């Protein structure tokens, strides 16, 4: 399927009609959406076209259909975070990224499925049912931004937004043969993103090509007065980048971490590395000995922040059908609506922050996080770190959900970038028995241009751009 | 001393332009419920707190005025507890372990008007934090009301939590400290302590080195004194009858005038303190200049200034309590008024009349203009009217209508200076003798008598004219002595 950049080129030359493109996408939705369940809220084609006609804003995304993860606030559509707790909640404000997309003429057609409050790696833990992988409907699409990834993969949107707390955008991208870039912490405003773990997450562009990632990131990036954690810089220019010379690339491969991947994943990642080597890239082997501890530190911090963030859902300001006998009872009723995994994480997070345990867990994790960051900073200024995006192929629906420890371990390669606040790009590198496999590159803070340049040449090398799944 | 009192005073930054983390108003009074709100202070998911400059500057200024050691950066912390009027179910505050308070220790120096002594009370720390919303109980208060109404207009209003060391020795002293604290913060433009709910205090009271008891929710300085006195008495009686003071939290009931234990459940709390991840540490240095600019005036500096002019301390004290009065004085002096005379006129006579008339002393428009006061002072000075006349006739008129001009108040008709001179000379025989013996200053006395005569009849007189007439008489040798 055509990428956004290609469509825009044709439209500007007037050799294609926007309406035809919109029709194509809604045809895909009609065919695949009932099987895949990528969207929680979705507009009709008529409404999308009406929006296009009424849109006063003409910009770099004019006529482009955007899918937005349902934990990103939109005023004209409910924002549920995949939870019963926010079932009918319509925010009275737009997220900053939504504002920026609208201002550039993008048409948001729907809100995509996710694990409840983005807590999960498979999009099976949504109150709105699991999202299936368009490449194989028996498999998960990854998570928590599984809806956005799946919609992209079946051609149900042009471009999408996910959020990446510990790989939540990159992991589903790799399971669906699409692209995602987790930006440097603070490059993209989190205003309007329903928080899971504030200090770790970034809203992340998702697309079917590197060029499209660059286009969307350029539009949503930059300082926002409504988010004190945004970096004090204007939008970064990302659409003028030429592919990197693969001969100039310096790649570091953490052997000890690649070792724990499934054999299909290992085979593909090594094949990919060998291809880079053949092209003349310099490959250095490294050891990230702290990998497993980093996963513990990540979950400790994420769950502590999550339990705090989720305390606001007490049934007072949010839709409730039943009123409790008294305050205490009402709060309990409202909080009963959380799913099992969310409750588990609230309990763990509360435990982690309790007197007597805080030092052993929370404080220790924060210290470990600093060490990870310091250690990584020395590396990422010298080379791009390459890792698979997931240690496994997309699991079968229901396969991993019962065992939280295995489920959490799916994130091991991804949490590194979130702990350190550095950018990482995930891209498809191949297939194994019809299931997509992805890899990622990480670099220094604000090294997005480097990632885009490398991504462009890798995309050329693999030829895996603009892919659409055919299982539905 | 056997009594030890430590205070925790919560003062709202009512004079801040904004709430602590959003652009809503810090002074919500008089607004319809839930109209002074936005996604941030409603705590809606995805809305983010952004520290606002105004409350930060006011917080830093408060810290400096109390001689505090300042941290390099202001760090905020989340404190968790479930409460209906706390929309996020956590409060963004500061905490020693995980966030640096805006004051790491200091002291407040102030004058205690009971003993006329300067005191210095050590401050252990000051937190800058957000106020929760308000719970409004209908139908007879918290115990009996079937429902509670939540008003979030107050949610997010900047609050200073000022914690003293347990160094106060009596209820009276505690009250005087809080009054001094509020006055100081009022002077630097942080708070208006007279607004409803602008401050609340908790007091830790222990006697004979025993366990300390915390009394919560005291809403006025008068109640503070009463509550502590009650608590001291309660603890003394308890010990007298063989009981033991236990460490507990009690609630002050201002209506019944007693402290009561809180139910045990409310006391146990695990706040799960955590650094606020949405707010990076705020460096203080870039805000220092603006904070310092707030510190031009403190009541204590003003008091010393007034004292050095020779104004009696009771009057100086009275003047610094009411800023419009102080400002009136300070503006009238450069216009030619006499400081001591003005102080007496303003602090005693005008203030008294205004109080009697039930006027708001803190409303500038209820006070006459500095020009009028300076004119009065000059007229008294040169003797053309006398002080008693001003006190009895001019001040009450100005108190009821401060924009009246002196021309409108002072006597209409003009006295005949010749006649008046004759009467004055006849009434002042001793002075005339003295004058003729060569004591030139006696002349002024005779002039004064003449002027008072005129004024007592409601007539105006130019003292120079009567002076001339008297001189003529004295030189004409027509006087029989
Ligand atoms: Zn607000």
Report the C-alpha radius of gyration of chain B, rounded: 30 Å
Broad CATH class of the domain at 4-243 and 450-462 in chain A: Alpha Beta
Q: Biggest sheet of chain B: strands, sense, closure? A: 8 strands, mixed
Which word captures the global form of chain B? elongated
Q: Which strands sit side by side, in order, in the main sheet of chain B? A: 5-6-9-1-10-11-12-13
> What's the pLDDT, averaged over the residues of chain A?
95
Properties at a glance:
heterodimer; A: 472 residues; alpha/beta; 16 helices; 13 strands; 15% strand; B: 481 residues; alpha+beta; eight-stranded mixed sheet; three-stranded antiparallel sheet; 17 helices; elongated; binds zinc ion
Write the layout of secondary structure elements.
The complex is a heterodimer of chains A (472) and B (481).
Chain A: H1 4-12, H2 18-36, E1 39-42, H3 45-54, E2 65-69, H4 96-103, E3 107-112, E4 132-133, E5 136-140, H5 146-153, E6 159-164, H6 170-175, E7 179-182, E8 202-207, H7 210-220, E9 250-254, H8 255-258, H9 263-278, E10 282-286, H10 291-309, H11 327-336, H12 340-353, H13 359-380, E11 384-388, H14 404-409, H15 415-420, E12 424-432, E13 435-442, H16 448-462
Parallel strand pairs in A: 2-3, 2-6, 9-10, 9-11
Antiparallel strand pairs in A: 1-3, 4-5, 6-8, 7-8, 7-12, 11-13, 12-13
Chain B: E1 3-12, H1 53-65, E2 73-74, E3 77-80, E4 90-93, E5 106-112, E6 117-130, E7 134-137, H2 141-144, E8 148-151, E9 158-164, H3 171-187, E10 199-207, E11 213-218, H4 221-240, E12 248-253, E13 258-261, H5 264-267, E14 274-275, E15 282-283, H6 285-293, H7 299-308, H8 313-321, H9 323-332, H10 339-356, H11 370-382, H12 387-400, H13 406-409, H14 417-427, H15 429-436, H16 442-456, H17 463-475
Parallel strand pairs in B: 11-12
Antiparallel strand pairs in B: 1-9, 1-10, 2-15, 3-4, 3-14, 5-6, 6-9, 7-8, 10-11, 12-13
Helix pairs in contact in B: 1-6, 3-4, 7-8, 8-10, 9-10, 9-11, 10-12, 14-16, 14-17, 15-16, 16-17
Bound molecules: zinc ion.
């Amino acid at each position: 399927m055509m990428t956004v950049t290609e469509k825009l080129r044709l439209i500007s030359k007037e050799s294609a009609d926007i309406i035809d493109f919109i029709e194509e996408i809604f045809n895909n939705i009609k065919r695949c959406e009932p099987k895949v369940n990528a969207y929680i809220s979705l507009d009709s084609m008529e409404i999308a076209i009406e929006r296009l006609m009424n849109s006063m804003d003409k910009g770099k995304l004019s006529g482009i259909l955007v899918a937005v993860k349902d934990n990103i606030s939109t005023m004209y559509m409910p924002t549920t975070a995949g939870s019963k707790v926010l079932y009918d909640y319509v925010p009275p404000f737009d997220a900053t990224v939504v504002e920026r997309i609208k201002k550039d003429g993008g048409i948001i057609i729907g809100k995509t499925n996710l694990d409840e409050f983005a807590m999960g790696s498979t999009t099976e833990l949504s109150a709105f049912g699991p999202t299936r992988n368009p490449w194989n409907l028996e498999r998960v699409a990854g998570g928590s931004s599984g809806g956005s990834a799946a919609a992209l993969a079946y051609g149900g949107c042009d471009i999408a937004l996910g959020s990446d707390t510990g790989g939540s955008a990159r992991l589903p991208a790799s399971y669906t043969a699409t692209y995602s870039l987790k930006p440097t912490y603070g490059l993209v405003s989190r205003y309007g993103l329903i928080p899971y773990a504030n200090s770790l997450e970034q809203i992340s562009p998702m697309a079917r090509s590197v060029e499209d990632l660059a286009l969307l990131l350029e539009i949503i990036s930059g300082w926002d007065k409504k988010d004190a954690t945004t970096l004090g810089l204007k939008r970064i220019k990302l659409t003028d980048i030429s592919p990197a010379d693969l001969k100039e690339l310096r790649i570091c491969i953490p052997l000890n971490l690649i070792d724990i991947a499934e054999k299909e994943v290992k085979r593909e990642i090594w094949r990919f590395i060998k291809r880079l080597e053949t092209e003349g890239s310099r490959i250095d082997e490294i050891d990230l000995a702290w990998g497993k501890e980093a996963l513990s530190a990540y979950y400790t911090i994420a769950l502590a922040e999550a339990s705090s963030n989720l305390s606001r859902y007490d049934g007072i300001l949010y839709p409730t059908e039943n009123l409790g006998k008294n305050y205490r009872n009402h709060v309990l009723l409202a909080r009963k609506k959380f799913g099992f995994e969310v409750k588990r994480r609230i309990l763990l997070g509360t435990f982690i922050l309790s007197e007597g345990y805080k030092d052993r867990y929370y404080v220790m994790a924060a210290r470990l996080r600093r060490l990870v960051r310091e250690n990584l900073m020395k590396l990422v200024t010298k080379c791009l770190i390459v890792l698979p995006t997931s240690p496994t192929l997309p699991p079968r629906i229901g396969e991993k959900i019962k065992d939280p420890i295995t489920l959490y371990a799916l994130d091991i390669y991804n949490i590194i970038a979130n702990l350190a606040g550095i950018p990482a790009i995930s891209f498809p590198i191949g297939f194994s028995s019809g299931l997509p496999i992805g890899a990622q590159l990480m670099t220094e803070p604000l090294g997005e241009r480097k990632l885009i340049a490398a991504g462009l040449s890798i995309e050329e090398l693999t030829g895996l751009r603009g892919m659409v799944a055919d299982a539905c | 001393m056997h009594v030890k009192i430590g205070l925790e005073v919560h003062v709202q930054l009512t004079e801040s332009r904004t709430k602590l983390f959003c652009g809503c108003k810090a002074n919500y009074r008089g607004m319809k419920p839930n109209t002074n709100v936005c996604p941030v202070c409603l705590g809606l998911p995805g809305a983010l707190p952004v520290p606002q400059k105004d409350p930060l500057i006011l917080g830093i200024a408060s810290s400096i005025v109390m001689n505090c050691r300042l941290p390099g950066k202001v760090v905020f912390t989340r404190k968790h507890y479930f409460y209906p009027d706390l929309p996020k179910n956590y409060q963004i505050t500061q905490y020693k372990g995980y966030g640096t308070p805006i004051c790491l220790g200091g002291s407040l120096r102030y004058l205690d008007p009971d003993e006329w002594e300067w005191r210095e009370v050590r401050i252990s720390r000051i937190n800058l934090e957000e106020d929760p919303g308000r719970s409004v109980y209908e139908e007879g208060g918290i115990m009996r009301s079937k429902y509670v109404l939540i008003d979030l207009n107050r949610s997010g209003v900047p609050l200073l939590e000022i914690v003293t060391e347990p160094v106060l020795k009596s209820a009276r002293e505690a009250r005087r400290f809080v009054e001094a604290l509020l006055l100081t913060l009022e002077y630097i433009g942080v708070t208006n302590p007279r607004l409803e709910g602008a401050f609340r205090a908790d007091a830790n009271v222990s006697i004979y080195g025993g366990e300390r008891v915390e009394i919560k929710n005291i809403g006025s300085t008068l109640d503070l004194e009463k509550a502590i006195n009650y608590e001291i008495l309660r603890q003394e009686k308890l010990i007298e009858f063989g009981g033991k003071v236990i460490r507990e939290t009690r609630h002050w009931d201002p209506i019944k005038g007693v402290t009561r234990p809180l139910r045990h459940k409310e006391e146990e709390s695990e706040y799960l303190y955590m650094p606020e991840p949405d707010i990076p540490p705020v460096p203080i240095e870039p805000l220092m200049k603006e904070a310092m600019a707030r510190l031009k005036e403190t009541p204590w500096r003003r008091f010393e200034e007034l004292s050095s002019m020779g104004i009696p301390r009771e009057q100086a004290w009275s003047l610094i309590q009411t800023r419009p009065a102080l400002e009136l004085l300070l503006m009238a002096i450069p216009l030619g008024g006499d400081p001591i005379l003005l102080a007496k006129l303003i602090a005693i006579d005008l203030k008294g009349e205004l109080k009697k008339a039930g006027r708001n002393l803190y409303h500038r428009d209820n006070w006459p203009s500095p020009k009028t006061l300076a004119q009065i002072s000059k007229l008294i000075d040169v003797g053309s009217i006398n002080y008693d006349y001003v006190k009895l006739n001019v001040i009450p008129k100005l108190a009821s209508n401060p924009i009246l001009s002196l021309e409108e108040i002072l006597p209409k008709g003009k006295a005949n200076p010749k006649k008046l001179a004759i009467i004055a000379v006849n009434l002042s025989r001793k002075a005339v003798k003295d004058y003729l013996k060569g004591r030139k200053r006696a002349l002024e006395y005779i002039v004064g008598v003449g002027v008072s005569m005129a004024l007592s009849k409601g007539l105006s007189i130019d003292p120079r004219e009567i002076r001339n007439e008297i001189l003529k008489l004295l030189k004409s040798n027509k006087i029989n002595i």
